[in-house]
Write a structure and sequence with these properties.
440 residues, alpha/beta, 2 domains, two-stranded antiparallel sheet, 13 helices, globular
Length: 440
């Protein structure tokens, strides 16, 4: 039960009725309190992993399966039905070109690693997305935790901020699997690309100013004191004290509020990220890792282009091109790129030939991923596909190898066993290999 907005004044002394009516922070909507409470009940005090070169990850999620030919791996010498409708953009790397859709990203290629030889197995959206988030193939027997959930489990929060944040909302397979919901993403509940964007729980509700917020916190303290005298477990109340203290700290911290507030950015900086939905989302991701969030997922666009791929890419690609290039430059200029992995993932590639609907269909056999920062080599194009972008030609890499390498940079051993229901030890990733040639 919740304390109504008018139930306490500065001079109120809480009595038995308040004890019965105040179960949590009255009127604040305790998504944050619940979030920290679940973490307190978890395994958060027994972290084992030690931070590595990378301190944070921004995972850019491109739902639907972006065509490698129309992005990272163009084939300008191939026949028209293979190369598609676009030309190329020269990068800063000798002899390396991106598709013309990525002109801005071509300008920061010297800060990136592009892997052109990802060898996938899944052509279904859900199954491919599951593998991209977890490093496992989907199974009815067990749901595996996503990369962000594992980072949350291994390291926990930093600077009173949630360790794992999803912008604008959690992806279907970006959850916690067998680890439990306390390690899941904090969904901001609003899209920074929309007017009226506000993060849930960081703003006091109507009618509750700072004075009333403080009064209710005092009432909460009296209630805790009352139940502490009745409680048999001081440890349990100590955990409650900890997670409510963290919730209060986040709600009342100007620094935490500012981390989520892209309006604090200079107009010139916001302009660099562009006006597409990607711009504000990517900018918010940068603010969050700068403030201390360990893992941010950002989703953008729909890339399932079975028909009319030319027009579809002209609509979708410019926003990604502008915002992602700006994010990489911005992190680099702020000295954050060295400690932040920017991981650009999709689901699979697209078929080598343009189909009868002027699009491309699902194709997992070879596709591309891009990474920047966090100790990955700068200016590297790793592996290759063949002349029609239909098979890996050199240095094939699996999705689980990429995720294992990201874990390695964070200081997490992907061979580590976590405990699944039924006391079953499960490796974070089974059989993944650190691709050392990707690392600086």
């Amino acid at each position: 039960m919740f304390l109504k907005h008018g139930a306490a004044t500065q001079n109120d002394k809480p009595g038995r009725r308040e004890f019965l009516r105040v179960g949590v922070i009255g009127g604040l909507g305790l998504t944050l309190g619940d979030f920290f409470a679940m973490q307190a009940r978890g395994d958060q005090k027994n972290y084992i992993s030690k931070e590595g070169v990378a301190k944070s990850v921004i995972q850019i999620v491109l739902p639907g399966g972006m065509a490698h030919q129309e992005s990272w791996d163009p084939k300008p010498e191939a026949a028209l039905e293979y190369r598609g409708p676009f030309g190329v953009a020269k990068t800063k790397l000798p002899g390396v070109v991106f598709n013309e859709n990525f002109k801005s990203l071509a300008g920061v290629a010297d800060k990136m690693t592009v892997i052109r030889s990802i060898a996938g197995k899944e052509a279904d959206h859900g199954r491919a997305s599951y593998t991209m988030f977890t490093g496992y193939r989907k199974s009815p027997a067990l749901e595996h935790p996503s990369l962000g959930a594992v980072v949350s489990h291994e390291f926990g929060p930093r600077k009173d901020l949630p360790p794992y944040v999803a912008v604008p909302s959690a992806s279907e397979y970006g959850g916690t699997g067998y680890l439990g919901s306390q390690f899941g993403p904090f969904g901001i509940g609003s899209d920074p690309a929309r007017n009226g964007y506000k993060v849930r729980d960081l703003m006091l509700p109507p009618g509750v100013d700072d004075r009333r917020f403080s009064t209710r916190r005092e009432i909460r303290g009296v209630v805790d004191d009352h139940f502490r005298t009745q409680a048999k477990s001081a440890e349990a109340l100590g955990a409650m004290d900890e997670f409510y203290a963290r919730a209060y700290a986040l709600i009342s911290s100007p620094a935490a509020r500012e981390a989520f507030d892209i309006e604090k950015e200079k107009t010139a900086t916001r302009a660099q990220y562009g006006t597409s939905d990607a711009g504000p989302r990517f900018l918010l991701a940068r603010r969050l890792v700068e403030a201390g969030v360990r893992f941010v997922t950002v989703s953008y666009g729909g890339w399932d282009m079975h028909a009319g791929i030319e027009n579809a890419m002209r609509r979708q690609a410019p926003g990604l091109d502008t915002a992602l290039a700006a994010l990489i430059r911005d992190l680099d200029e702020r000295g954050l790129l060295a400690s932040t992995v920017v991981l650009v993932t999709s689901e699979f590639g697209r078929t080598p030939k343009i189909n009868a609907s002027a699009g491309r269909d699902h194709f997992p056999r070879v596709f591309s991923l891009a990474v920047a920062g966090g100790g990955f080599k700068k200016g590297l194009v790793y592996g290759s596909s063949n002349s029609t972008a239909s098979e890996p030609e050199e240095d094939p890499v699996r999705v689980e190898d990429v995720l294992t390498t990201v874990y390695h940079q964070l200081g997490i051993n992907a061979d580590k066993e976590l405990m699944a229901p039924g006391a079953r030890p499960i490796e974070i990733i089974d059989g993944g290999t650190v691709v050392k040639d990707l690392l600086g």
